[in-house]
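Field reference: sequence -> structure
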Amino acid sequence: MPTIVITGLGASTPLGGDLATTWDALVSGRSGVHRIQEDWADDLATKIAARAMVDPASKLDRVEARRLDRSTQFALVSAMEAWADAGFGLGDDNPVDRDRLLVSLASGIGGLQSLIANWDAQKDKGPRRVSPFTIPLLIANAPAANVGLKIGARAGVHAPVSACASSNEAIALASDLMRLGRADVALVGGAEAVIHPFTIAAFNQMQALSRRNDEPERASRPWDVDRDGFVMGEGGACLVLETLEHAQARGARIYGTLAGAGISADSHDMVQPDPDGYGQSLAMKRAIADTGLAVTDFVHVNAHGTSTPQGDVTEAGSVRSALGDHADEVVVTSTKLMTGHLLGAAGAIETISSLLALYHRSVPPTINLDNPEPGLGIDIAANKARPLPGGDLAALNNSFGFGGHNVCVAVTNQHATH
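Structure field:
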C-alpha cells in the first residue's frame, strides 16, 4: 500500500490571502473576526463574522470570476496556490499523468449566495433576469468541478458533503483512493462562502452563533466558561497529495505524511453531538489505528473546538476517551477562534494547521481562553503558541458536522524535507 505525502499547501482565509500570511497569524494568535459593515447586519442578533482578508475575485480573471460563486473562487485561489507550491504547472507545463490525477474538494453548503441572488432577481425583475450560469454557480460540486477542469484531472473529481466535516472527508476519500492505486496525485480541500443575512439569521434561530458583538475578536472562545457560540467564517484551503514514490521521483519538497483517517457517525441527533462522545472517540481511534502508530506517538490534536456550550465539553471528553492517560501529554488547540468557522472548508485549513504545527514544531494558541471550563481533562495551548519537541511527531485533526458526521485525519512529519 503506497505512503501518501503532502507536497503543496494553499489557503485564502480571514487571516490572509495566502497560506504564509494565514500561518503567521495563526501562530501569532491574531483574530480575523470583525463587525459586519453592511447595513443588513443591523437587524441581526449576531453582527460579527470572519470575512476573508483578500477578495478571491481579485486574484482571478474578471470574466472567469463573474461565472463562479464566491465559494468556487476560494476553491480556485487556494487550489492554485497549493498546486504551484507543489511545483506543478498548468496545461503543457503540467507533468502529471492526467489519468492518474484526481480532485476531492468539498463545500458544506455550496453556492448559496448565487442561489439567493438569482431568486431575488427573479422575484424583483422576472425570470428572464435569472443568470444562465445559475445552476453551475450553485451546485455543491462546483468548487471541485472547476478545480478539476483547471488542472485536467481525469482519475475522478469528488465533492463529499458532510456539513462541517466535509473537507476532512474529502481528504480521507482521496487518501483511500490513492491507497487503492487509483491515482498518483490528488488536489484536496474545501471552500465555503455563506456569510449572508439569511444564514446568520438561520444559525441565530438555532442559538448557534456568538452574540458578543461588542468584542468581535474575543467572541469565539472554545472551552471558556463564557463561550456563547461560534463565529461564521469564509475561505478555502487545499493540499496536494502524492504517493511517496511519485514525490521522491521528481525531488519534491515534502511537508509530511497523511498517515491515516477515521470516520464514524453518531446516529444520535441532527444537530447536537452525542453527549457521551462515543462517535467522536471512535473516529479518532480509527484514525490512530489506520496509521499503525502507537497512541504515544501523538503530540497534538487540532480540535473541532467551535465555542459552543455542549460541543466543546463533548469533544474534550472524546479526546480523553480516545487517547486515555496519554491525553495528558498531548497539546490541544482550536484555530476556529481566529479563522472563524469555515464550515465545509474547516477541516482542510485545520489539517494544514496540524501539519504545519509538526513541520515548524509550534502549536497555534487557543486565544480568548480566560476562564477554562473546569474538569476538561485536556492540555490546551491557552493564549500562546506551544513549542513541540524534536523527533518524529504525529497529530490528529477533528471535524464534526451536523447530522453526526465525525472525521479525524492523522498527519505526521515523517518524510518531511526542509
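Note: The mean pLDDT is 97.
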